[in-house]
Amino acid sequence: MTVVSGTPYARSQHALSWSALGLMVSMAVPVVLIILGIAITGWGAINWVGAIVWGVIGTIAFTLFSIVGAAMRMTRMDLLGMLGNTIARPGSRASKGIGLVIHHMNGAILAIAWLYTVALLGLPANWATGLAWGAVLTLLALLMMTTIGSVHPAMRSGAQDDPGPAAVNFGALTPVGSLLGHLVYGVVLGIGYSVLPLV
Fold first, then answer.
1. Maximum separation of any 2 CA atoms in the chain, in Å
2. What global pTM score does this model have?
3. DSSP-assigned beta bridge partners for residue 12
4. Are 46 and 194 in contact (CB under 8 A)?
5. Which pLDDT tens digit goes with each residue over 44-60?
6. DSSP code of 165?
7. CA distances from 119 to 14, 34, 37, 45, 186 (A)
8. Phi-psi region of 6 (alpha: psi -120 to 50; beta: other; left: phi over 0)
């Protein structure tokens, strides 16, 4: 079964079975890494406060980079609005606020997943593994953007643009911006946690 989502300006067609698989993979990878990390290395293998704080700070850096990218016309994606539109009315102030909370919660969770990943692999938690993690997150994010229209309520109703494959409906340079933003997140996370882990 296929569905068409998005507005007349930016829409995509989704095969529901493949889209569901793509969404599950993009969201499940970090969660599985956290679960495996806790099961194998234990709760105390990472500094949870440091992970959450630096994950949020890295997300703030990502958000600021995204604002600059939008101002430079690299992309027209409104990530906070798109996240908030899953719950609130598109274009509302509540939508932006909810999107901001979701985005920064994701940043904290992804920082925890990074720390458990490096613990499982016996690697250092530094700028280099943070950078590599940012590259991995780019792939997961673009997979999510490619498939999210199949379940996003505002996209399904035609009130929100569908990102399309690798989010190129928001501009041909959107994947590049996503990569750079996630690398910024990873470097800030890696440097911050390694220098000041907040033990």
1. 51
2. 0.93
3. 5
4. no
5. 999 999 999 999 999 99
6. G
7. 37, 10, 7, 7, 16
8. left
Closest-CA residue to 114 (of 93, 141, 133): 133
Residue 36 CB contacts under 8 Å (≥ 6 apart), including other chains: 116, 120
In the chain the first and final C-alpha atoms are separated, in Å, by 51
Tokens at 182, concatenated = 């996630």
Place of tokens 């901001």: 100
Beta-strand pair 2-6/11-15: antiparallel
Query: Which helix (H) or strand (E) is 35 found in, with range?
Result: helix 16-41
Q: Quick check: 129 and 122 in contact, CB under 8 A?
A: no
Is 198 a residue whose pLDDT tops 80? no
Please state which of the ranges 84-88, 168-172, 179-183, 190-194 shows the lowest mean pLDDT.
Answer: 84-88
Per-domain boundaries in the chain:
2-195
